[in-house]
Design brief:
Blueprint (H helix, E strand, L loop, with lengths): L3 H21 L8 H26 L21 E5 L5 E5 L3 H17 L16 H8 L1 H16 L2 H4 L2 H15 L4 H5 L4 H7 L7 E5 L11 H17 L6 E5 L5 H11 L5 E5 L6 H10 L5 E3 L7 H11 L5 E5 L5 H8 L8 E5 L9 E3 L1 H7 L5 E4 L4 E3 L17 E3 L10 H8 L7 E3 L8 H5 L8 E3 L16 H7 L6 E3 L7 H9 L12 E3 L7 H10 L5 E3 L13 E3 L1 H20 L1
Parallel strand pairs: 3-4, 4-5, 5-6, 6-7, 7-8, 8-10, 9-11, 10-12, 12-13, 13-14, 14-15, 15-16, 16-17
Antiparallel strand pairs: 1-2, 17-18
Length: 587
């Protein structure tokens, strides 16, 4: 049997053991239970911090501060207008009154009083420099960048320092070459000074608007039509106050609306061009008649025009029109007959071209009735026309001709049936003729041209721009042309003519007529039989020659068959010819 005392001792040891361990723990130098818990917390916080850093690389934490909205620059209207005088002077006229200046100065004074200087001043701390930064600073590339920055500070703001009238002059030079649109629209976005200069009405006197609102092949939406109307009306009210010449190209919609707006706000319009446009009706012509009383030039080439409305407009207001350009089709014959009857008595330029489409209809024109209907005609152009002149009974009565005619163009890219008799009917009363273009008229001979009453002809074009295999061309007579107009001829085109070598050499020798040098500036001898001797005569007798075409000349060496432009290029050709002659003499 167990002793009860021993059992009590065992039980006592089992109860007192843990208590002794707890009491002995501080004596053994081990940490407290609170410290162990803090270590665990610190280790867990470090692990969570590392995880947060790893997450921060892939997903950036959102910032507390909100981004400030960017301030958009306000485009203020210019406070001045620029007007051009008759003596080529630009006047700057301010639109600001005295009270507005006082208001501006008060506003600026209020802003200055509100923004007081801060009292706290931060100590200037030197920037931290490293070895890499010092190396970059000492490198030559950094020195070059510093120089560029200094130059930008010195010269970068030159456009802001220029006076407005000088900017307007510079813009005028660019506009004369590239047009007002889109140059002025892009320049006005540079700064306020350029915006003010580009908005001056002097620069918008000649404007062309091409249609680029919709992509090709897509229909025009209603929203885009509203945008077009708003843009045209804004331009007419704010930019076109001094508009003189206006052109619309490739517009298929809103043509009548645009013409009405232009005629409403542009009373000084003198020239209107509608090229490749559609839907031109009586509304446009009526608005032009009422609003544009100074309209003198009307270009309707390749446009779909309602011809009866145009005829009624010309019959009423045709006395204003001095230039008319149209495209021939079967419906235009009624318009040509109305012009011949005298609906435009002040007409000075008449141009009738043809689309490059074969049409069964031919232009039938009575020369004598046109001479009586347009007695002040100065330029007559019948381009690419296969026309047949009408013969009217009693034509001998009409002996007036075109007394003021200076240019006659009957050029065509194919062969023409114009003969010498037709040419004499046109030019029998035109002593002032300067330009005669008969390209493609192979039936006209040099002998017939030499009998014309034109004594001061400057430009003569007789080139053939079609195949001449089945054509009977004259082989003699070129010397009659150069001998007749040797003192006045500036441009001569003999492309594709079949004149012989001897005839061309005589013709080139008669360019001066034995009186010094010739004023000839342009000579086209492409495809002719010109020899080297005639070529030497041309260059020596024509010191003002700047264009010489020798392509496909079969009697010249291969190295010379090309186009020569400029006096330097022609002088090099002359030196080469002289060297070749010296070599021939030595041999």
């Amino acid at each position: 049997m167990e002793n009860p005392c021993e059992s009590q001792r065992v039980a006592g040891t089992s109860q007192t053991g843990p208590a002794e361990c707890v009491e002995e723990a501080p004596s053994s130098g081990s940490a407290r239970p609170g410290a162990t818990q803090k270590r665990k917390r610190n280790s867990t916080s470090k692990e969570t911090g590392k995880r947060a850093k790893v997450k921060g690389k892939s997903e950036p934490a959102p910032k507390g501060k909100k981004k400030k909205a960017r301030k958009t620059a306000k485009w203020n209207a210019p406070r001045y207008t620029i007007q051009e005088t008759d003596n080529d002077m630009l006047l700057l006229i301010s639109d600001v009154d005295q009270y507005e200046v006082q208001r501006r100065t008060k506003r600026r004074a209020r802003k200055v009083t509100k923004t007081a200087p801060r009292s706290r001043t931060k100590r200037a701390t030197a920037p931290k420099t490293t070895v890499k930064a010092e190396r970059k600073r000492d490198s030559p590339s950094s020195a070059g960048l510093v120089g560029v920055k200094l130059e930008e500070q010195a010269y970068g703001s030159w456009g802001l320092r220029l006076p407005a009238e000088i900017l307007v002059r510079i813009f005028q030079v660019v506009i004369s070459r590239d047009g007002a649109v889109p140059f002025l629209c892009r320049v006005s976005r540079v700064c306020r000074l350029w915006h003010g200069a580009a908005s001056s009405p002097v620069l918008w006197r000649s404007t062309t608007l091409g249609f680029c609102w919709t992509e090709p092949g897509k229909q025009q939406l209603l929203k885009t039509q509203v945008k077009i109307q708003n843009t045209v009306s804004w331009l007419a009210q704010n930019r076109f106050s001094q508009l003189r010449e206006f052109a619309l190209c490739h517009w298929k919609h809103l043509v009548n609306y645009t013409v009405q707006i232009i005629s409403q706000f542009c009373p000084h319009l003198t020239s209107l061009k509608l090229q490749d446009c559609a839907g031109v009706t009586s509304e446009a012509f009526l608005s032009l008649a009422s609003g544009c009383t100074q309209l003198a030039s009307l270009n309707l080439q390749h446009s779909q025009v309602h011809v009866p409305d145009l005829i009624s407009f010309l019959e009423t207001y045709g006395s204003r029109i001095k230039q008319l350009l149209i495209t021939f089709n079967s419906r235009v014959m009624a318009l040509i007959n109305a012009i011949s009857k005298g609906c435009c008595p002040e007409l000075q330029l008449l141009e009738i071209d043809n689309k490059f489409v074969r049409d069964s209809h031919q232009l039938t024109l009575c020369i004598e009735t046109l001479q009586t209907g347009c007695p002040k005609l100065q330029v007559l152009r019948l381009l690419n026309q296969t026309w047949l002149p009408k013969v009217v009974r009693g034509a001998t009565v009409f002996q007036s001709g075109f007394p003021q005619l200076e240019e006659l163009c009957l050029a065509t890219s194919s062969s023409s049936s114009v003969e010498e008799q037709v040419l004499h009917r046109l030019l029998h009363g035109s002593p002032r003729l300067r330009v005669l273009d008969l390209r493609g008229c192979y039936r006209v001979t040099p002998a017939g041209l030499a009998t014309l009453p034109c004594k001061e002809l400057e430009c003569l074009y007789l080139g053939l721009y079609c195949s001449s295999n089945n054509l009977t061309l004259p082989k003699e007579g070129s010397h009659l042309l150069t001998g007749r107009w040797n003192c006045t001829l500036l441009e001569l085109d003999l492309r594709g003519q079949a004149f012989s070598e001897e005839d061309l050499e005589i013709a080139m020798a008669k360019l001066t007529g034995g009186e010094g040098s010739s004023p000839l500036r342009s000579l086209n001898l492409e495809g002719t039989k010109v020899p080297l001797s005639a070529l030497r005569l041309v260059i020596t007798l024509c010191p003002q020659l700047t264009y010489l075409n020798l392509t496909s000349c079969r009697y010249l060496p291969r190295g010379l068959k090309r186009v020569y432009r400029g006096q330097e290029d022609i002088q090099l050709l002359y030196d080469r010819l002289m060297k070749s002659t010296q070599v021939d003499v030595d041999d």
